[in-house]
Amino acid sequence: MDFLRQFWVVSVKDLRAEFRTKEAVNASLAFALVILVLFSFAFDAADLEEAAMNEISGGLLWIAFAFAGTLVLNRSFVRELPNDCLDGLIAAPISRSALFLGKAFANFALVLAVELVSLPVFGIFYHVRWARQAPELMLVLVLGTWGVTVIGTITSALTVNIKLREVMLPMLTYPILVPALMSAMQLTTRLMAGEAIAEDTALWLKMLIGFDVIYTSVSLILIEVVLIG
Amino acid sequence: MMLYVYAPAGFAALLAFVLAVAASVLFLRTKGLRFDALAVSATQVGLVFLTANIIAGIVWSRLERARLWTWEPALTSALVCALLYASYLMLRRALEEPSQRAAFCAVWSIFCFLDVPIIVAAVYRWRSRHPQPPLWSALPVAPLAGSTAIALLIGGLLLWARVKRENARRERESSRRMDHVI
Predict the structure, then answer these.
(1) What is the residue-averaged pLDDT of chain B?
(2) Class of residue B153 by CB neighbours under 10 A (exposed 0-12, middle 13-18, buried 19+)
(3) Residue among A206, A17, A195, A11 nearest A94 (CA)
(4) Is the ipTM of this complex over 0.95?
(5) Chain A CB within 8 Å of residue B93 CB
(6) CB B34 within 8 A of CB B26
């Protein structure tokens, strides 16, 4: 089996397991919606000027995405614990980087799906016209979500044997994700306000791409250590 | 006055984190547990200095701007880095099996260190709408170099003591485990 096929088999397996129970994705979606509703008590959306709402929309969205994302990421490796599935996966004759990428991609698809449902809901609740720069916004969503899932998948592997892993995962991921979330927030805010990507925003885009490239490659190098110990 | 604590402490913290990541890489190459002891000691000493840096920044902010916290870029990145390295110590505390703990923490230390320049770049970019020169740029060079030398000396002594203590603790633990086996 070549690398691509191994990668594909692992991600399809994860997605299929998730779609049979839907436990992570349902919880994540419900959580995202609850957060979006809670925001409305932090400020009054009816009183807020359109400009002021635009100014904070990117930040609000990515806070909701990051929180909801952890619920999916938490399950990623824990799901393999019953029946010693994790040992089976590690012992399987596939490359560990394909295993990691496959799991990361499955998480990525799930988190992105939750985001794509929450985004229009956010638009309706807070009267934000989010689709003015739709292709660029999709690009930012994809890049930001990939950053969150790469870090989340590797921390999920690091914390799988810890008793308090549900607490540990967000404490590990959020500080390291600060630059990625910051770039994604800045870009989302600008794009939702209808601005095209200019010189100023392009720098944030470069930073987001850089974050993704650096952490994807370092994860691929170090995953061997994490899985075999 | 506060800035003579602030700048050297930040510099010493950065050096400690460089040492920690070097020790982590060496651990992953050699699997020698003494490098793990050096990595955890350097991280803790680095966090002590980073805390000194942040406290000095808070005092400075209170004196100069009459509020306890300003989102000044250097101070903000120091805060984010402190949270980041606190996560390293949390991970350490949560993992129990020594060789696994050493390997996982070495991986996490590399992850944290790679994030430091990105955090600094992002925070400076984020604050670029209100540009301001770094706090220490107004200071005369000679006393600043002197206080940095003092900070590094204190850091070296702290690190030496911490490594000794860490090794002694490990010795004690392994002998207790041996007693248990016998």
Answers:
(1) 87
(2) exposed
(3) A11
(4) no
(5) no
(6) no
Residue B82 has pLDDT above 80, yes or no: yes
Mean pLDDT of A111-139: 90
The predicted model gives A4-25 an average pLDDT of: 91
CB contact at 8 A, A72 and A118? no
Q: In B, residues 102-121, which contact A (CB 8 Å cutoff)? A: 103-104, 106-108, 110-112, 114-115, 118-119, 121
Give me the residue spans of the domains in chain B.
3-181
* B31 backbone φψ class: left, alpha, beta (φ>0; ψ -120 to 50): left
Give tens-digit pLDDT for A207-217: 999 999 999 99
By the 8 A CB rule, do B102 and B41 touch? Answer: no
Choose among A175, A176, A226: nearest Cβ to B104. Answer: A226
Report how far residue A119's alpha carbon sits from residue A36's, in angstroms, rounded to the nearest whole number. 10
- Summarize the confidence of residues A133-154 as an average pLDDT: 93
Q: How many residues does chain B have?
A: 182
Cα torsion B84, B89, B94, B95 to 10°: value is: 110
Q: Is the CB of B69 inside 8 Å of chain A's CB atoms?
A: no
Between CA A39 and CA A69 the distance in angstroms is: 17
Q: Residue A145: name the closest of A73, A56, A217 by CA.
A: A73
Residue of A155, A166, A176 to mutate when probing chain B, most B C-beta within 10 A: A176
In sign, the C-alpha dihedral spanning A222, A225, A226, A228 is positive
Helix, strand, coil abundance in chain A, percent, nearest 5:
85, 0, 15
Q: What is the rounded distance in angstroms from the CA atom of residue B117 to the CA atom of residue B143?
A: 27
Closest CB to A162 among B28, B87, B94: B94
pLDDT at position B182 over 80:
no
pLDDT of res. B152: 84
Nearest residue to A226 (alpha-carbon basis) of A152, A150, A160: A160
